[in-house]
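EI: anyone free to look at a 472-residue chain?
SC: sure, send it
EI:
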Amino acid sequence: MRVAVLLLLGLALLEAEGRCFFNRTQEYCVCYRLSQDNAGSIIQCLAASVVEFQGGELERYVDFPIRDLDPSTIDMLGTLEIRKIIFGDLLVPEVLLARVLRFFSYTRVQEMAFESCSFLGRSSWGEMAGENLPILSLHFHNVTSAPLTGREQDFSELGSWLGTLQELSVTSSHVTSLPCGIGRVFRALRSLDMAQNSLGDGSLMPAFCEGAFPQLQVLSLQENNLTSYHGVCGSVQLLHELQHLDLSQNKLVASPSSSCQWPASLRIFNLSNTGLDELLMPLPPGLEVLDLSSNHLRAVDISLRSLKTLLLSRNLLLAAPPIRDYPTLRSLHLDDNLIAEWPWDEVKLLGNLQEVSAAGNPYNCTCAGAGALQALAATGCLRQGWPQHYACHSPPHYQGTLVRDVPTSALQCNRAVVLAPVCTALGLLCVAGAGWLAMARRRRAAGPSAAQPQGLHGQELGEKARRNPMCS
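SC: here you go
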């Protein structure tokens, strides 16, 4: 039984000294270069939820006898809590893997990863025909193996299992092509990550042929050798369920006189760090998240009525895009651009968003410029980086000062508005005083008899004068 468990948990009969270490808090167990002499330490890993095997080569065990498991061993394997197994830095003969993989059907392992491994030779996978494994997520990172071209039959024999797989990643593994027939095996796959490989424009159309990856929703082609924006668009047209596409870190250009239609289902589009000097068209019309960060854009003039998140950090923008063109926008990122000031009418619209990030811009801290940012911060939408990453670039006497600390009160910024009423009142008082003074002088010059009663008060004075001979 012990031999069966060891085979199941990673072919861990390795040739050098090593042992296993179990972190009970994290339920994580890692084993380094096990040998037959110290393999007993693997027992402590049986209580883990994640087991990692590091180091060694398995070529000497290609002819190791592998028998079917007895019922008691099968029952015991079904009680293990292990959900994920990681194999790292291993030389794995493919023929040995083909003979052992079927034992995972007796476990509850849902995720398997191979990191920095080399798969040696080729094998027939006939023993796996019709086998269903509980593994739903499969990851390969920095691995080497025989080319995938011409291996459609091998994948077909694994079809019962691969047809239920939901998540697959093959990253940093020098993959240059993905044959059409292989893609058709992955009938239930939801997520495919092919980042950091060597896929070119000509390899995409066969990879995503009719019937390949029919349920695919998330596709990452980050950092490959793609150059044609419209070529990628045409290649993924048959992925009718695609919702998230990552083309970041490819140097994309528009193809002259070309047009295409992106899948209508596409909602998240990552074009960051693709060398764009201007926005490429067309864009998927139903986008909700668009990432254009780390490019060379100087302006963004598009209208996407359903867009909720727009990422434009690390570009050359002199101003924010017109917010009115994005009626459903909730999050806007404009860090590290060339924006100096925010117009007040834009600030009023930005205040309706849930999140705005605009740190690292060369702000002109005039009263209007600093006041607009302070007003935007007061709405609560300036979350990330405020106030420590919002500094003044000009005028010189405020250079390096946080925008938050720039005085923007009416007395300091709009003295004319404050002083105008005061000056007006003083002017009126002066005019009134001058008028009374002039009237008083005229009365003294004309004598008492020249004084004429005015209004109601004047009539009362006239009546008193008539009754009093002294005033006649």
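EI: The two ends are 140 Å apart (CA to CA).
SC: 👍
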